Amino acid sequence: MKEKRIVINENKTNRRVAYNKIGRVLFFLSTAFGMIVLATLLIRIFTQGIGYLNWNFLTNYASRRPEDAGIKAAIAGTVWVMGITIPVSLILGVGTAIYLEEYAPRNRLTRFIELNISNLAGVPSVVFGLLGLTVFVRFFAMGRSILAGGLTMSLLILPIIVVAAKEAIRSIPQEQYEAAYAMGATKWQIIRTVVLPAATPGILTGAILSLSRAVGETASLLMIGAMAFIAYLPDSIYSSFTVLPIQIFNWAGRPQAAFQAVAAAGSIVLLVILILMNSLAIVIRNKYTKRY
Amino acid sequence: MKNQESEKLIYSVKDFNLWYGDTHALKDISLDIPHKQVTAIIGPSGCGKSTFIKTLNRMVELVPSVKMKGDINYKESNIFDSKSSVETLRTEVGMVFQKPNPFPKSIYDNIAYGPRIHGIKNKTILNEVVEKSLKGAALWDEVKDRLNENAFGLSGGQQQRLCIARALAVEPDVILMDEPTSALDPLSTAKVEDLIQELKKDYSIIIVTHNMQQAARISDKTAFFLNGEVVEFDATEKMYSNPNDKRTDDYISGKFG
Amino acid sequence: MQPTIRELIKEKKQARSSNSRIEKTMPKVFFLMAAFSILVTIGIVYTLLIETFYFFTQVSFVDFITGTEWYPFFGNDPSFGIWPLVSGTFTIAAIAMMVAVPLGLSSAVYLSEYASERNRKIIKPILEVLAGVPTVVYGLFALTFVTPLLQSFIPTLPIFNALSPGIVVGIMIIPQVASLSQEAMNAVPQAMRDGAFALGATRLEVALKIVIPGSLSGIISSLVLALSRAIGETMIVATAAGSTPNMGFNPTESIQTMTAYIVQVSMGDATFGSTIYYSIYAVGMLLFVFTLLMNIIANYFSRRFREVY
């Protein structure tokens, strides 16, 4: 391989340029593959489910006959569960982020907490389900209730909210703190009047994105025993419940093609909800992007 | 105000030392800073002048590895005394920074920030404070019709005067200025310098500056810092015409720095 | 004359001793919230350990860890050998990685080295949508679209098989591989690329010989994280892979993963306190250990990567 004199071999150069072109095409096609699959999935789910998507579908309870089946209880269940999950995960997540970014000393305990949170983010949701089943459903005797489901879900998305809130807080420039300190503000006043207002858009964006994960989350709620056949609306946080993804899973598992189409109809509704949530997050991000 | 007060001292620093970790940043500083005058602090980059001014309102303590020894008396009481709170000190000693740093709030809310965190919520009083402070910072005429607009919409020079107004709102005794014009264009700089001349009637001003001409133009006394030490501290006129120390002469005549 | 602001501030200060109380309590409140995350981990480890312990009072640990037959529902003579579930899990993970590694890394190279700023801004959010599709929808897609599609190529493929959900899990983790690897590649200093370009290297050569070696630990970290997600993925396999715990690595058979077993039991009516009930904790424990190990490995590589730049 080693050449004594510098000889530029034109054939070799041409070949290298050709490889580069092939590489570019291959890399682009690989990237396009993901997008093509996404398009296929959306089109497929849409065409499969559109036939069952009508007003009755939104206002009916689950049924043995596919044409009568609906997602009323599932939508209500999702809303109730989120009613628990949003405040719990937001308060705990933002509080944790404030502690880690504003108060925590640089010591081993702090590093341990941070490492622990990043590891929690990687724990599979079924394991959170086992935790919820043991601690909330059995130990605290909440039963297979909305409360147990909402709390389990809060723990599941807590690490994501913490990370988002930490990033939002960290993006506040040091000069903002200096300005407030120089006015004689105390730490807590600074958090209240400088940090939280400046970090709110970032926190909201991150929170909505992690909540959209919670809305689509199935496994951990299956574990704590959310049921697919609920023919009534929840009346308290101790009611048993179902959520949209579990309803979809249940229909998808039926052998009849008609029920699989109903599952696709449910999927359309779920995807629309998620797209709306994501759009909201993007709008907030763009509207409140601060120029410091 | 009474005339004889101008001979009083606002700060008296004795044998003050400061370390960042193992770096000895301020060495045996002793300075008497007069009341209601402009005191300039000059010196090359890294000489400790910014560290020194940030010590006067204890902002330097935000750096985690900082260690200090010695006394700094502000109006007869030691600022490190455990009985006096940092917050009270910083209410009486305002500060303006190198880069304008308004909050991402309205002009009004920026000025009202100080009074509000100190518990003043009365709308009438706040309105008065905002108007008075903006007038004091020579900004009122430019912004009086858009008090509710975001402060980021102002020009750099206006933002810096807004920060001065924000500091004035709690009626401090001292205003610390850390290179307040280094990020501004010449025209805005001139406006801020004029403002400093106005302000010294009511406030003691301590200004760090990189710009020797600026120190000569606006200050009554000047301290020259080098490598964490005070080389010379004297009336500005005396220092610029006939410095005692060879190093001061070299710096002022531009031989280094 | 009305009081000056300074006097008002002094007055207020004296009136508000509560201020310093808040100042002292808030850090403690926030610390408790942060410490709560540790409590969650302890909760997970504790519940898993306790219930797993009960399981091993009923089933021998050696049988569990060496057994190759998993028939928990065989009335009088159940067998709890974990290997079929482990092999099912790794069959799915292997298929998924075969899909996600080449496609994800190619996407990362394209986004980091070839794509214009404009294209990158369009493509990345689209890939993020791919990561945001709920797994239950992916499961439906695998069962009702990918499986029939595969059957048209492999007519003997049963409805429930490992191949289809494996591929779909792979598609699901493409965005994770692509975006984390691309971030790692971005962190390679431009000066290193410029040096090679100046010698006449093509983009492909720069990508393969400068950027990928330079960001290798970051890439490995992203791949390990993706593998961890593939192992923990539940709904796609529960929907489309069936529930037959088969030993071996045959992608055209129905299999069962550890996650799918846990879901199957918790959906059924396993009585509290039965061996089957406790078995999901033993399986969950194993799953937790697997994914925790991978997270630690991924953390190690990502820290090493950050130290380099």
From TrEMBL, chain A:
It is a multi-pass membrane protein. The chain crosses the membrane at residues 25-53, 73-100, 120-140, 146-165, 219-238, 258-284. Residues 75-281 form the ABC transmembrane type-1 domain. One of its GO terms (molecular function) is phosphate transmembrane transporter activity. InterPro entries: MetI-like (IPR000515), MetI-like_sf (IPR035906), Phosphate_PstA (IPR005672). GO terms for biological process: phosphate ion transmembrane transport. Gene3D superfamilies: MetI-like. Keywords: Cell membrane, Membrane, Transmembrane, Transmembrane helix, Transport. GO terms for cellular component: plasma membrane. It is found in: Cell membrane. CDD domains: TM_PBP2. Belongs to the binding-protein-dependent transport system permease family. CysTW subfamily. PANTHER family: PHOSPHATE TRANSPORT SYSTEM PERMEASE PROTEIN PSTA, PHOSPHATE TRANSPORT SYSTEM PERMEASE PROTEIN PSTA-RELATED. NCBIfam families: 3a0107s02c (TIGR00974). This is Phosphate transport system permease protein PstA. It comes from Alkalibacterium olivapovliticus. The lineage of its organism: Bacteria, Bacillati, Bacillota, Bacilli, Lactobacillales.
TrEMBL record, chain B:
One of its GO terms (biological process) is phosphate ion transmembrane transport. One of its GO terms (molecular function) is phosphate transmembrane transporter activity. It is a peripheral membrane protein. It comes from the Bacteria. Its main location: membrane. Signal peptide: none annotated. It is found in: Cell inner membrane. InterPro entries: AAA+_ATPase (IPR003593), ABC_transporter-like_ATP-bd (IPR003439), ABC_transporter-like_CS (IPR017871), P-loop_NTPase (IPR027417), PstB-like (IPR005670). GO terms for cellular component: plasma membrane. Keywords: ATP-binding, Cell membrane, Membrane, Nucleotide-binding, Phosphate transport, Translocase, Transport. Pfam families: ABC_tran (PF00005). Residues 11-252 form the ABC transporter domain. The keyword ATP-binding applies. Part of the ABC transporter complex PstSACB involved in phosphate import. Responsible for energy coupling to the transport system. This is Phosphate transport system ATP-binding protein.
TrEMBL record, chain C:
Gene3D superfamilies: MetI-like. Keywords: Cell membrane, Membrane, Phosphate transport, Transmembrane, Transmembrane helix, Transport. One of its GO terms (molecular function) is phosphate transmembrane transporter activity. The chain crosses the membrane at residues 29-56, 80-105, 126-150, 162-185, 206-227, 276-301. The keyword Transmembrane helix applies. One of its GO terms (cellular component) is plasma membrane. GO terms for biological process: phosphate ion transport. Residues 86-298 form the ABC transmembrane type-1 domain. Pfam families: BPD_transp_1. It comes from the Bacteria. It is a multi-pass membrane protein. It is found in: Cell membrane; Membrane. Part of the binding-protein-dependent transport system for phosphate; probably responsible for the translocation of the substrate across the membrane. Belongs to the binding-protein-dependent transport system permease family. CysTW subfamily. This is Phosphate transport system permease protein.
